[in-house]
Request: fold
Amino acid sequence: MIVLAPTDSLSVCLSGVSWLHCVIAAVCLSVCHIGSNLSGVYRMQLAPGHYVFVQTKSKLFKNSASGHPEFIMSTHSIVRSVVTDNGDS
Reply:
């Protein structure tokens, strides 16, 4: 699990962290500033030769009394599943 504070900067992406951490940081910052985010469709491998194309929707929830951010909820939707015979996509 990766937890980022709303004040985290994308400058961490320049310090040698993985591409995935940069993407997560960008999504977190977008959600914290705008309140929601809809990712582009991306491919994820579930097993050799089995890929799914996924899209992620995220939303920031705030405390109703204080207005301070409480948590971000994300849902991942499978757009398409692809199974190849030879293990290649």
Notes: The chain has one helix and four strands. Strands lie at 36-38, 42-47, 50-62, 69-83. The first strand starts at residue 36 and ends at 38.
